[in-house]
Design a protein that fits this description.
heterodimer, A: 357 residues, 2 domains, B: 247 residues, 4-stranded antiparallel beta sheet, 9 helices
Chain lengths: 357, 247
């Protein structure tokens, strides 16, 4: 019984044998003793580093640089080793980052206190905001954020509807219609958003079309994103195999029913990841609206900065942008990965063999 | 009426070109109500093209196609209406992968025939039972084997209560052990008196179910007859050659 168990274990071992066991290669510099001792030595050398502040002599510079390089090699030995457990690699990576930050802090000669006063002076934001305002800077930034989100969401809705419409028309393959759509798409993709926005806001009033700044901003962003989104949808629609269309039409569905019931639901899965990343890009592009004086997040921050003579509001706005955009960007990557996995099972699926006798 | 059988499909001098490639060279054929017509012939003979022309999945280049007396090549005909009366079963099943089996089946009845959802579901389940897949009603196509997918595809075609069903090599994408289950379904359908055109090389099935066999080669019908006549004493040398290859 026991021997059997052992045998099974051995079998298991052979299967899961480490790279090292299979090839018998265990160089001295990969051994844990060396890693530990060399780390201690490196820390010891650290005590001989020059005093804080900008180094004065070349030899001090060289010492610091070589010290960092030695550490880099040490971390590299760990990180390039397939056999080391991940937690050790993580420690190595964190150590090297920490060391870099520490060396920079110690020897760059940066004026940390002034930097903190200029860019991270949060007091500026907790006072009442810009001229004539009764609320704090934070509250103003929050209002700016709401404006940004409003613009982004409306532009996303209009851009998506327009893009979808263009893509569906494109799929009809009508040469004249296609020419119009291609011109539309190329034009709005080539046109810088800021220029488009300025034209709509500053030039169109001369054509007796006067739009409020918010409407101009939303319009410019919608037009721009409609071009990109229509291309995304077109790719999605074209990725659906033609035999789906044939199957639907052979059942008597009309062209539009086929599009609505068969093609678009399938294309949606393909389209979701690039569509999400397009929304992320558009949310960022709302910052351009500050150029036509819409009080969105960036414009609010710029106004506050001017009023307080301090750039902290800009830093705050940056952080707010990041808090909102990072999860969205992550989400689009997750969608894309899920899509890729699905794509693999899709292609593995039994493909009909064209067998003819 | 009476002895004169109703003509379901008639093609008159049907031609089809792909660019300058002449695929169908004047096909004259008639299919009567309740007939099972098998089409055989070497690869590239135009069998599939012929079948696809009849419900205008391919536009015929010239000639007439009469379905139950209506010329469907005329621009005044609503082709969707004609197509809804013709079931079509594809070689590669072509199920809608985003819908379950039952949703695949009821899609067209609900949206084309405007049958209430509940009733369509009921009838869809009956059809699935008929093809022996009632327990797979809520499975997605990629959870089904090839044979099961093809049976669902047949049920989907039947859900429109078509007057005729076309089969375009329904078993040639299937593994050998799954061919039987599909052929059984088709054979039952033939026994019920459904008008069918089948492009297939399943000689066993053709012998058992087909009332007539057309042999297509190079875009022409070179020979036709009952399965027994044709398989036992083929007349045209190309038919002989072809049969000797697949028998």
């Amino acid at each position: 019984m026991e021997t059997k168990n052992n045998k099974a274990k051995k079998q298991n071992c052979i299967e899961k044998a480490s790279w090292r066991e299979r090839y018998g290669h265990w160089p001295w510099y990969r051994k844990y003793e060396f890693v530990l001792v060399s780390l201690l030595v490196l820390i010891g050398i650290g005590f001989a580093l020059p005093r804080p502040g900008l180094p004065e002599t070349l030899s001090q510079w060289l010492f610091i640089v070589f010290y960092f390089l030695l550490f880099l090699i040490w971390a590299g030995l760990i990180l390039t080793d397939v056999e080391k457990p991940n937690w050790i690699k993580a420690i190595g990576a964190v150590l090297i980052l920490f060391l870099f930050a520490w060396l920079f802090y110690r020897y760059s000669g940066a004026q940390w206190d002034k930097l903190g006063y200029a860019f991270f002076n949060w007091k500026v934001l907790s006072e009442t905001g810009s001229y004539g305002s009764t609320v704090t800077g934070w509250a103003e930034l929050f209002q700016g954020l709401l404006m940004t989100l409003e613009i982004a969401i409306l532009a996303a809705i209009f851009g998506t509807l327009l893009g979808l419409l263009l893509a569906v028309f494109r799929s009809l393959n009508d040469p004249i219609l296609n020419a119009f759509i291609i011109i539309w798409v190329d034009f709005f993709r080539a046109m810088p958003i800021i220029v488009l926005m300025m034209i709509i806001y500053y030039a169109m009033p001369y054509l007796n079309i006067t739009l409020s700044s918010a409407v101009s901003g939303i319009l410019a962003l919608s037009l721009n994103s409609s071009a990109y989104i229509s291309e995304i949808f077109r790719a999605g629609i074209e990725s659906i195999h033609h035999n789906q269309v044939e199957a639907a039409r052979s059942l008597g569905l009309t062209t539009m029913q086929t599009m609505r019931l068969v093609i678009l639901p399938q294309a949606m899965r393909v389209v979701m990841p690039p569509l999400t990343s397009n929304y992320v890009a558009m949310l960022k592009d709302t910052a351009i609206c500050s150029s036509i004086a819409i009080m969105e997040l960036l414009k609010t921050a710029i106004t506050l900065q001017a009023w307080k003579a301090n750039p902290t509001p800009l830093v705050a706005a940056t952080i707010i942008y990041l808090i909102i955009l990072l999860p969205l960007a992550r989400f689009s990557t997750v969608l894309e990965n899920r899509m890729k996995r699905k794509g693999i099972t899709r292609t593995v699926r039994r493909q009909p063999k064209a067998v003819e006798v | 009426m009476g002895e004169e059988r109703q003509v379901m499909i008639e093609t008159v001098d049907l031609h089809k070109y792909f660019k300058d490639h002449h695929v169908l060279k004047g096909i004259n054929a008639k299919v009567f109500k309740g007939e099972v017509v098998a089409i055989i012939g070497p690869s590239g003979a135009g069998k599939s093209t012929f079948l696809r022309c009849i419900n205008r999945l391919e536009e015929p280049s010239s000639g007439k196609i009469l379905i139950e007396g209506v010329d469907i090549t005329s621009p005044r005909v609503d082709i969707n209406k004609i197509r809804s009366e013709i079931g079509f079963v594809f070689q590669s099943y072509n199920l809608f992968p985003h819908l379950t089996a039952i949703e695949n089946i009821k899609l067209a009845p609900v949206h084309v025939r405007k049958i209430p959802e509940k009733e369509a579901e009921q009838r869809g389940l009956e059809l699935l039972k008929k093809v022996g897949l009632e327990e797979k009603a809520h499975a997605y196509p990629d959870q089904l084997s090839g044979g099961q997918q093809q049976r669902v595809a047949i049920a989907r075609a039947l859900a429109m209560q078509p007057h005729m069903v076309f089969f375009d090599e329904p078993t040639s994408a299937l593994d050998p052990e799954m061919i039987r289950e599909v052929l059984d379904v088709m054979q039952n359908l033939a026994a019920e008196g459904m008008t069918m055109i089948v492009v297939s090389h399943e000689l066993g099935f053709i012998r058992a179910a087909a009332s007539r066999v057309l042999v297509l080669a190079d875009g022409c019908i070179i020979e036709e007859g009952t399965p027994n006549e044709l398989f036992n004493s083929p007349k045209h040398p190309r038919t002989k050659e072809f049969l000797s290859k697949i028998l």
